Task: structure prediction
Amino acid sequence: MLYDALIAPFTEFEFMRRALAAAIALALAGAPIGVFLMLRRMSLVGDAMAHAILPGAAIGFLLSGLNLFAMTAGGLIAGFAVAILAGVVARSTGLKEDASLATFYLASLALGVTIVSIKGTNIDLLHVLFGNILAMDDQTLLVVAFNATVTLLVLAVIYRPLVIESVDPLFLRAVSRAGGPAHLAFLALVVINLVNGFQALGTLLAVGLMILPAGIARFWSRDLTVMICIAVVAAAVSGYAGLVLSFQTRVPSGPAIILVATVLYIVSVLFGRVGGIVRQLFPGRHLEA
Amino acid sequence: MRIILLCALVLIASPLQAAERLNVVASFSILADFVRNVGGDRINLTTLVGADGDVHVYTPAPSDAKRVAEARLVIVNGLGLEGWLPRLVQSAGSKAQIVTASAGIVPLKLGAAADPHAWQSVPNARVYVTDIANALAAAAPDDADVFRARAKAYLDKLETLDREVREAVAKIPPERRKVISTHDAFGYFSAEYGVQFVAPLGVSTETEPSARDIAAIIGQIKAQKIPAVFLENISDDRLIRRIAAETGAKVGGTLISDGLTGEKGSAPTYIDMVRHNIKALTSALDH
Result:
């Protein structure tokens, strides 16, 4: 009975196994990035980026028609351009990162709409570009896995400056000049993960599995390493439970996975060990001393 | 002076001479192909939704209104395909006569409304062509004989085409004459030639499918032994290949339903389109 509900879908259907593999790969790469995005108050970057890639995708479409590879490459370039320009402006002027990113992504979106309308097509390019977790072919699965590997390796290299910069940027500036490059490398990781995530899994999942687990982890630990581990586990659990939910009910898979993560998030907000609402209302005895 | 005036008059008049050819507007590429075959060079034909355009989501541009305003005949498919056209004719202030090419066929139902894709059955296309020829002949009685003769030649070609389709379908074993498809454009084809287009269970093309939907399609293909899948929503391309990989069903090629392709495409004319579709179907089903 329990076997039928929880395991049989995956033994019976290959597409379910592939979806689960993709969800776990996404959890491994996306959740740590989400934690850093949250620490740097850039949680909404993902949504902005989903729009910022439009002009690149549109130019790719103009040059080579409905070619996923060209459109994805274009999207990556546009995403990089927006992220790096926004990062440079934020670092060299008084404008905050979120404000400069908002400016660039709106400009990018407007440019994208203009380019699409020149071609005079009725196709919704972004819709074409966004994939579905149930449709993992070999190539997409490899891209997602490759992505996760590269992300983890690069994160390992830039981990130290990135952490210090997230909590004490002035200190880092005083002792090292690694802050700028680390920040740009991090932005590059964000863009690669998002664009590949959109292409493989759709906007909702790519952004959702990045940001929600970070929010969940925040309520359970103050230690960054533990936080990242919790985020990865929360993302993987959401992926598995969401797929089962989508299989047993009629909820589309992307929303199902994000809804499971949302439930975990609400539980964390209420009962989390670090700053959860219940914990605040009924503080433990050790705080009384 | 008079001579100059006369020359000027001749110059002004000569374009008018050329413009005496009947101005005809056709709503989309397939109708335009019928009209061109009947009218030939005796008409000026304008197509509103040209090759590779989607007539369902088309929005008219000001230049289209201008063409409609100048037209004597506006030829439409009807059956709800061109909902935007009556408004366009009105707003363009056109005095054009609207000819509904599907007037002579028996419409099938698609849900509650009529299914507009009547041209997918070749006998229906012959009705279209006959009606178009009559309308052109009535609008330009001087050229009526030309139109009738050209229409007759084209109708003969369509009859040959109809026979081709029937022969091709006859070669497919009867139990294999079914494909699974989200296309809702092949109702008339299915009714005329007996190839079953099975709709996937519980899947709307509008929304994202759930894991259960995909599992249901896979189960359905296996249970009904459906040999080929023609689910071709561009964005779901990978999903379809996944389903095919898991069921062993063949992924059929592209079926062209609502509009012709450009000159270089696989279906620049109606006859090419029908041949293309029947080839895609037989190569997926024939064994």
Notes: The two ends of chain B are 81 Å apart (CA to CA). Confidence is low (pLDDT under 50) at residues 13-19 of chain B. The first strand of chain B starts at residue 22 and ends at 28.
